[in-house]
Structure formats: C-alpha cells, structure tokens
C-alpha cells in the first residue's frame, strides 16, 4: 500500500491545524483569504504562523491558547501554516515587515498595522507561559 506524500503531510499536520482551529482561530489557506482578512480589518487581529516544529507544538500553540483565555483578546483570530499553505503564508508575511520570515511566529495587528510580533527565536527560548504573558501584555495594551 502506498500513500502520496501530499496525503501523508495533510494527515500528519491536521492535528496541528486542529489545535488552533478548535479554539476559534480561523485558517487562511490562500493568498486571497489573507487579502480579504488582514489589510483593512478594523480592530485587532492575531495571526499565528503555524509550523510543524517542536517549538510550535511545545511553546507557540499552547502559549496562544493560554493567552486567549485572557479577558481582553483580539477581535479577529487567524492562522496560516508555514510549509503547508505556502502562498497564504507568503502573503501574510508581507504585512509583518520589517521582520524576516520565521515560523512559528505570532503577529498582532491593529487596524491593519503590525503592532506586536513574536519571532521564532523568541518562541524557542521561552515557555508557553512566558509566550502567553507576552501576548496578554500586548492584548492589554492594544486590544482595549
């Protein structure tokens, strides 16, 4: 029995997608979906650049989930999946200048402008709790 590589990857990453969508984060899978949701959104938007790496599993996704338990949260919640939805991820990253591409990473936008960004190197060396604290601080500052 053989399975295509694409099918294998879809099956392998689905639980990683579900970890964010199950807590109310909307996946943006195409550049058109990114364009329709990010640039002009009024209010605040959290954008998680998801990844298959260990720091996404151990720190980024759990940190985001914990942060979203805060009383103050962004108006909109989005995710793109690096390495899987490549074109959507590339389009989302256009809004994160001057930061270079990194995954996982987490962006907070207000009225279409980037106001807070957590790069991969800031995920790798911190716990999920520290990432949640960072995010909740940004939520308190920008999402009121």
TrEMBL record:
Protein name in UniProt: BrxA/BrxB family bacilliredoxin
The species this protein was found in: Paenibacillus enshidis
Pfam families the UniProt entry points to: Disulph_isomer
InterPro entries in the record: BrxB/BrxA (IPR009474)
Family: Belongs to the bacilliredoxin family.
Taxonomic superkingdom: Bacteria
């Amino acid at each position: 029995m053989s399975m295509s590589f694409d099918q294998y990857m879809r099956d392998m990453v689905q639980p990683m997608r579900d970890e964010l969508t199950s807590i109310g984060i909307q996946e943006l899978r195409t550049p058109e979906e990114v364009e329709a949701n990010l640039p002009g959104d009024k209010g605040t938007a959290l954008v998680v650049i998801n990844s298959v790496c260990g720091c996404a599993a151990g720190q980024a996704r759990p940190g985001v989930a914990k942060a979203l338990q805060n009383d103050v949260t962004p108006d909109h919640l989005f995710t793109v999946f690096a390495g899987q939805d490549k074109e959507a991820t590339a389009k989302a990253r256009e809004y994160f200048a001057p930061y270079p591409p990194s995954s996982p990473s987490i962006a907070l936008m207000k009225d279409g402008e980037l106001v807070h960004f957590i790069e991969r190197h800031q995920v790798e060396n911190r716990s999920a709790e520290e990432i949640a604290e960072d995010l909740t601080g940004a939520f308190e500052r920008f999402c009121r």
